[in-house]
Specification:
The chain is built from three helices and ten strands; from the N terminus they run H-E-E-H-E-E-E-H-E-E-E-E-E. It is an alpha+beta fold. Strands 3-4-5-6-7-8 form a six-stranded mixed sheet, sandwiched between helices. A hairpin with a 2-residue loop joins strand 1 (18-23) and strand 2.
C-alpha cells in the first residue's frame, strides 16, 4: 500500500511552495521550509559556478522515475541531455519530517533502479548527508554518510552544505 501512496503523492497537483509525501498510510501536504530552499540554492550556485557544462533542475518531474514521475528536490544533468532519469548525473533530496521514509527508502530504491548514478540525501535534523552511488536494480551498492559540515562531491563538483 505504501508504494501506491508514494506514486499517488507524486502524481498530486499541489500549490506552489508545497509538497506531497507519503508517510505511513497517509499522504501529507505541507509547506516547504526556507532552510530546504537555502540548501538547494547553495548546491545550485556551486554547480553553476564550477561546472558550466551542467544543467540543474529543482522540483521538476523527471520521466523514468516511476509510474508518476518524481520531482527530485534537485537534479543534475549535462547541459544538452534529455531530462530523463537515465540521463541524470545526480538527484538530491532534502529530508523533511514528512519525507523521511520516502527519501531514505522509496526514492533510494526508485532512483537506483532508474540508474541514477548518484543520489544525495541531506538530512538537516540529523545534521548529516548520505551519498548513494553505484546503482543496482535493488538499491545502491555504496552508501557513505558524513556530518553535514563535511563538503560532498556531486558529479565531480565539491559542494558545501553547511554555510
Amino acid at each position: 500500500m505504501h508504494d501506491e501512496l508514494v506514486e499517488l503523492a507524486a502524481g498530486m497537483d499541489v500549490p506552489e511552495g508545497f509538497r506531497a509525501d507519503a508517510q505511513g498510510e497517509v499522504i501529507i501536504v505541507s509547506p516547504q521550509r526556507p532552510e530546504r530552499w537555502r540548501i538547494i540554492s547553495d548546491i545550485d550556485f556551486c554547480i553553476r559556478l564550477n561546472a558550466p557544462n551542467l544543467r540543474t533542475t529543482s522540483d521538476v518531474k523527471i520521466p523514468g522515475t516511476g509510474e508518476h514521475d518524481k520531482a527530485p528536490d534537485f537534479g543534475l544533468f549535462y547541459k544538452n541531455a534529455e531530462l530523463h532519469a537515465s540521463k541524470a548525473l545526480a538527484f538530491v533530496e532534502v529530508v523533511s519530517q514528512s519525507s523521511q521514509e520516502t527519501d531514505y527508502v522509496d526514492k533510494t530504491r526508485i532512483y537506483a533502479s532508474a540508474g541514477v548514478p548518484e543520489y544525495l540525501i541531506v538530512d538537516q535534523e540529523r545534521a548529516v548527508w548520505t551519498l548513494n552511488t553505484t546503482p543496482t536494480a535493488d538499491g545502491y551498492r555504496t552508501t557513505i554518510t558524513k556530518p553535514i559540515e563535511t563538503p560532498v562531491e556531486i558529479a565531480g563538483v565539491q559542494v558545501e552544505l553547511d554555510r
